[in-house]
Amino acid sequence: MPKKINTKLRLAQYDPWIITTTVKVEETPYIIRLPTKETQEEIIQRWGYKFDINKCVVVKLYDWDTEKTYDITINYDEVGYFLNLEWLLVVFDRQLKEGDKVGFFWDNLNPTLNFKVLQKKVA
Asked: Which one of 20, 83, 105, 109 has the minimum C-beta count within 10 Å?
């Protein structure tokens, strides 16, 4: 008997914010840690070189909500990947607080780390 093929069309919502994290008190306002596995797979591997411990790379960070661009440093230590120093500007500009959910994705065509506040914590 022939196998039935499903020909129904469905629309899927594309969500580019592959790397998500929640702002934490111990990180705010100085650093934000990025999930190691997702950061490795979605950003670092696309660069084509090894990212060594205690090394950093300066990249453009584009805020989708404000359309503002920052120069920001991606660092790597024994705990994992994180954004620091310049992240403080983003925290103050966006008034980020503990519990806010943020998302990131890397744009290969325009080498930029894209950023968006996905959800503000309700007080």
From this structure: 109
Answer for the pair 113, 61: CB distance below 8 angstroms, yes or no.
yes
Q: What is the pTM of this model?
A: 0.83
- E-strand spans in the chain? 19-22, 31-33, 56-63, 68-76, 81-84, 101-107, 112-119
Q: Which secondary-structure segment (H or E) carries 92?
A: helix 87-94
User: Which tens digit of pLDDT belongs to each residue from 30-52?
Assistant: 889 999 999 998 888 888 767 77
Beta pairing class for 112-119 and 56-63? parallel
Instruction: Please tell me the distance from the alpha carbon of residue 107 to that of residue 119, in angstroms, as a whole number.
Output: 22
